[in-house]
Amino acid sequence: MEQGEMVEHGGRRWRLVLTASPLQGHMSPILHLATFLHSKGFSITIVHSELNRTDPSNHPAFTFLPLLDHLYVTPGFANAVQFLQALNNNCRQHFQEHLVQIIKAQKDASEKESIVIIYDNLMYFARSVAGDLGLPSIILRTSSASTFSAIKIIPQLHQEG
């Protein structure tokens, strides 16, 4: 099979729509996964934040669609929660619009593709949009196992001041 040749998996053709947080360390794992999946014949669309966006010319076989996030700087740790809320609030509608366009294009295409959303856990709006549109979704955690320990202790640290 040649690179980029679309393969039928289970009798279907698949378009995978991936989205990642613009924070450092989140886009690279998504792109690595996308590259691997593309090598197996999946069509890839990357829906990305404008903040810290990747260079599409490095992945010419992928379709890149920007999300208008209206964010211009990554936050310090103290403002991370507000940043993530703004990111998810600002990207949700545009993400849904992109998916609706992809779905409409599929209706007119001679070779239909099933659409699956793969999203970074920090881009949690993707799950609700996928559910609203009746699309399956898969969450991808780009963080290490040590993150779980840190997340678990954060409430305790807040209580202790």
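(ticket continues) Second input and output from the same batch:
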Amino acid sequence: MDGLSQRFERLLEQRNFATEALKALEAKTGVDKRYLAAGATILLSLYLLFGYGASLLCNLIGFVYPAYASIKAIESPSKEDDTVWLTYWVVYSLFGLAEFFSDLLLSWFPFYYAGKCAFLLFCMIPGPWNGAHMLYHRVIRPLFLKHHEAVDSVMRDLSGRALDVAAGITRDVLHTLARSRALVTPAAVAVGPPLPSESTVGNLLP
């Protein structure tokens, strides 16, 4: 319990959007930021359990702040924060892919969105216990190192086939346009105004 309390304290000492907002509220209200954070967590949990639009709120939590933090990481001179948020987006994309196939089933479970929100928060919290960092190095990276050559080979094969198909379609379209132009041009000449005959030219001359 003491270890969890210490982690919570260290988390509140981090400099980010949430902790800055808590400090501002603490200065205005006089309430300790630990109680403010605990109250906000309880209210968020209750809303995710019983409120309307829990899916939208959960997706906003998992996307809006990480997107904001990623932009700040891009603009900062340090590359360490870039790695942190790239790792988060890798985990987030794989989680979204898995959720796509299981959402219809899992969304009927009670506390699903509360658990999803807790997982996303776990993946974005700073520090050595960052969930995205742990999942990447313990699960995703070993699988990637084991299978990336086979995946690269498949991707090269698919890209080569896609280029061949695109080239074939382009060639067929150009041939069709060329044939259409060849057919239209003689017809346009045939329906043009008739040339004047010799007698007509003679009558016109003085």
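Agent notes: The CA atoms of residues 2 and 98 lie 35 Å apart. The chain has eight helices and no strands. Closing as not reproducible unless the customer responds.
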